[in-house]
């Protein structure tokens, strides 16, 4: 017998609502929102080989949106980062302390736990994530099966589920309301409600994808290696390449406003975008962006 007394959404972002308010930035709501230039320098996450949660995040993106789109997204997201953290715990602490307002790849109970510790942290539950049951098992043929069943009955009881929540995990029962438990003096219920923004874990408006664990396991090393060599080790080059592309795109818009012929420049800058986002060829992207710029100043 295997079942789950605890559930949680999979890897997704958290944010410090106080710091975002001070910066006059709205809380992001979707994966794509994190790519908005207004958040540049205000996001942190760790490396997939330093955190299973970050690796899980990459797999969620790959399995939800396709590999090509996921790697395109990860390159653009990397340009938004203030820094790479040393691990998921470090990410949580940076966001909780307000050093960086948004942290990607966090188990959702981290926000609830941070609120319990007095930090104004909330969950950002994007449109695609996974549901992770934290399982408990009663082994077949175990010598104390009768006692184990008594424990499982208690664990899924109202009282047992309160202990689960107080232990900084989300209770799995669907009939639980944080507001009701708050009235009964369950302190963590208040923090859970504020972290999630709903009255029950099961009120979350999230599209849980079907996660292929076998596929994720099979390509574990490949994904880690690709991220390290194509994004992390080239982070400086990645950022400078994208920033140049954006500068030239702005110059093209300005030229269009002056009614200049920019067709050749537009075609080149589209090529530069593809070289950056799809191919990950940053040097070629910069060269092509420079060629697009040259078309703007040539007679």
Structure description:
There is one protein chain. This protein is an alpha/beta fold and 299 residues long. 53% of the residues lie in helices and 13% in strands. It is built from 14 helices and 9 strands. A 5-stranded mixed sheet has the order 4-3-5-2-6. A two-stranded antiparallel sheet has the order 1-8. Helix 5 (109-116) crosses helix 9 (187-196) and helix 12 runs parallel beside helix 14. The chain is elongated, with a radius of gyration of 23 Å. The mean pLDDT is 91.
Describe the structure concisely.
The protein has 299 residues and is of the alpha/beta class.
Q: What's the structural blueprint in terms of helices and strands?
A:
Elements: E1 2-9, E2 12-16, H1 17-22, E3 43-45, H2 52-65, H3 67-78, E4 81-84, H4 88-97, E5 102-106, H5 109-116, E6 121-123, E7 128-129, E8 131-137, H6 145-155, H7 158-166, H8 178-183, H9 187-196, E9 207-208, H10 213-218, H11 220-232, H12 235-257, H13 263-277, H14 282-297
Helix pairs in contact: 2-3, 5-9, 12-13, 12-14, 13-14
Feature tags:
alpha/beta; two-stranded antiparallel sheet; five-stranded mixed sheet; 299 residues; D-Maltodextrin-Binding Protein, domain 2
DSSP strand tally: 9
Distance between the termini: 77 Å
- The total number of structural domains is 2
CATH superfamily caption of the largest domain: Periplasmic binding protein-like II
- Total helices: the number is 14
The rough form would be described as elongated
Q: Beta-strand percentage?
A: 5-15%
Helix content: 40-55%
Mean pLDDT: 91
Order of helices and strands: EEHEHHEHEHEEEHHHHEHHHHH
Give the spatial strand order of the biggest sheet.
Answer: 4-3-5-2-6
Uncertain segments are none
The gyration radius over C-alpha positions equals: 23 Å
Task: Return the CATH topology of the largest domain.
Answer: D-Maltodextrin-Binding Protein, domain 2
Helix- and strand-based class? alpha/beta
- The CATH class of the largest domain, by name, is Alpha Beta
């Amino acid at each position: 017998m295997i079942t789950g007394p605890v559930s949680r959404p999979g890897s997704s972002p958290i944010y410090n609502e106080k710091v975002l308010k001070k910066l006059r930035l709205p809380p992001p709501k979707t994966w794509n929102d994190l790519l908005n230039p207004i958040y540049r320098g205000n996001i942190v996450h760790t490396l997939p080989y330093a955190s299973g949660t970050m690796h899980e995040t990459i797999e969620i993106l790959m399995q939800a949106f396709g590999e090509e789109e996921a790697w395109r997204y990860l390159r653009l997201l990397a340009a938004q980062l203030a820094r790479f953290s040393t691990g998921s715990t470090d990410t949580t602490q940076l966001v909780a302390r307000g050093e960086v307002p948004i942290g990607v790849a966090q188990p959702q109970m981290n926000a609830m736990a941070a609120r319990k510790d007095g930090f104004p942290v909330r969950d950002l539950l994007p449109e695609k994530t996974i549901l992770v049951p934290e399982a408990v098992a009663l082994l077949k043929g175990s010598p104390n099966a009768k006692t184990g069943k008594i424990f499982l009955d208690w664990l899924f009881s109202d009282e047992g589920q309160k202990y689960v929540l107080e232990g900084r995990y989300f209770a799995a029962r669907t009939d639980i309301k944080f507001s009701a438990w708050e009235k009964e003096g369950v302190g963590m219920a208040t923090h859970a409600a504020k972290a999630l923004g709903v009255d029950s874990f099961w009120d979350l408006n999230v599209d849980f994808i079907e996660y292929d664990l076998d596929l994720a396991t099979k390509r574990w090393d490949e994904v880690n290696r690709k991220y390290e060599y194509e994004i992390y080790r080239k982070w400086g080059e990645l950022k400078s390449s994208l920033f140049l592309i954006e500068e030239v795109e702005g110059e093209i818009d300005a030229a269009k406003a002056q009614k200049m012929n920019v067709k050749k420049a537009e075609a080149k800058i589209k090529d530069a975008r593809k070289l950056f986002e799809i191919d990950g060829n940053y040097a070629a992207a910069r060269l092509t962006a420079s060629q697009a710029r040259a078309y703007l100043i040539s007679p």
